[in-house]
C-alpha cells in the first residue's frame, strides 16, 4: 500500500486535535448551560459532543493505519462565559472544520486515498449539520 504524504498525516492529526477540542468544549458547555434557553439546547450540545468524539476515534484509526501516531492533545478549548460567546465560538469552530475537511478531501483525492476521502466526506456532512444547528441557535440569542 502507498503511504500517505506527511502533509496528509499532519492534517489528519490537526483534525484529531480539533475533534478532541470541540468534544470537550461542547460537553463543558452542556454542563455549564443554564436558564430556559440552556434547558432547551443542552442535550443537543451533549449529542454533538459525542458525535465529535466518534469523529476523533475514526480519524485516529485511519491515521494509525496510514502509519501516523494520533495526537492526544486537543486544540485550544474555548468554552465561553455567556450563551452568545459559546455559540459564536461553536459557529467559528465548525466553519474552520468545514474548511479543513474540504482540504483533506481534496488532498486525499490527489493522493488516491479513497478511504480517507470517504471518511471525511461523511464527517463533513456531520460538521455542516452542526454548523447549521449553531447558526440557527445564534439567530435566537
From TrEMBL:
Chaperone in keyword set: no
Any one GO BP annotation for this protein: intracellular iron ion homeostasis
Transmembrane segments annotated in the record for this chain: none
PANTHER family: BACTERIOFERRITIN
Organism the protein comes from: Hadarchaeum yellowstonense
First and last residue of the signal peptide: none
Domain Ferritin-like diiron: 2-141
Name of the protein in question: Ferritin
InterPro entries cross-referenced by the UniProt entry: Bacterioferritin, Ferritin-like, Ferritin-like_diiron, Ferritin-like_SF, Ferritin_DPS_dom
Upper taxonomic lineage: Archaea, Methanobacteriati, Candidatus Hadarchaeota, Candidatus Hadarchaeia, Candidatus Hadarchaeales
Keyword annotations: Heme, Iron, Iron storage, Metal-binding
PROSITE patterns linked: FERRITIN_LIKE (PS50905)
GO cellular component terms attached to this protein's record: cytosol
Gene3D superfamilies associated with the record: 1.20.1260.10
A GO MF label: ferroxidase activity
